[in-house]
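Researcher: Can you fold this with S-adenosylmethionine in place?
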Amino acid sequence: MSVALSSTDAVARAGGAFPAVVPPVMAGEGPPSTPLSVHAPQGVDGGPSPAMTFGAVPAPAMTVEAASDHTPSETYHRRRGEMLQYFDRTAADTWKRLTSDAPVNRIRATVRAGRDEMRNTMLSWLPDDLRGKRVLDAGCGTGTFSVEAARRGAHVIAIDLSPTLVQHARENLPKDLGDGSIEFHVGDLLDPSLGRFDHVVAMDSLIHYRAPDAVRVLAGLAARTDTSIVFTFAPRTVLLTLMWTAGRLFPRGDKSPAIEPIGQRKIARRVNKGLDGWHTSRTHRINRGFYISQALEVVRP
Ligand SMILES: C[S@@+](CC[C@H](N)C(=O)[O-])C[C@H]1O[C@@H](n2cnc3c(N)ncnc32)[C@H](O)[C@@H]1O
């Protein structure tokens, strides 16, 4: 099966990111050289949103984080640079198409269906009524999750490394958000200036980080979250391991950043140990065609 994949199709596996050799981006390389001012409220709530300015890398966040126990590591920085390169440049158009209603080939159709199922699962773990709640969509991509959470009344803080995807999300924002609102940001999901949250959702945005880095991110977010964090990881399955191996065969420049598969028990153990006062709760794996990803809920009792 894996040999039939084009590298771009393969990208979609495991949540839009397939195994592979990483793109040639140097450690610490960040967002585009033109600084981005971010962002007044994106056409929804009319109120002020935290103003943030990001240059080549969301450095302020990192400086603050560096003083805490949740210090992002060198590997986190390197992988983040690769993610930016990939989602903002190499695969931005593919990703826009995948997350739209536009026709896609059969392989990507299974990925889209799997991702829809995952989104619905994660949404079902949030309260039906999110009015008055602040929800962080961490690594929001084109903003599909943000829209659904806002429709339940949430004030969504949607952040992504990719200016291109965030711009796309803003331009395609539906008008029918009901009581909800979305505030878009470009930058690192750990940025402390985003404030506190009731719930955090990270759909397929942490699957590229090594487990210690992902858990450090979760711990950093947990310190600013009151109720729950729902994220996905790439489960270590035989099939995924095979695909990971096959992914290494694709031409170098066309590859997504590697995913970092991890066993369910191992990630649960790490999360329970790393997030003081929190514990893991529900989990659910989606295995649909060319999409494998697993959601895990972590709650503050
Ligand atoms: C596979 S996409 C998923 C997007 C979205 N969550 C969805 O499910 O449609 C992963 C996204 O995470 C973003 N991302 C990865 N690391 C990030 C970080 N440290 N801060 C902000 N965004 C990040 C990437 O730019 C990319 O858009």
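Model: Folded with S-adenosylmethionine in place. The chain has a mean pLDDT of 79.
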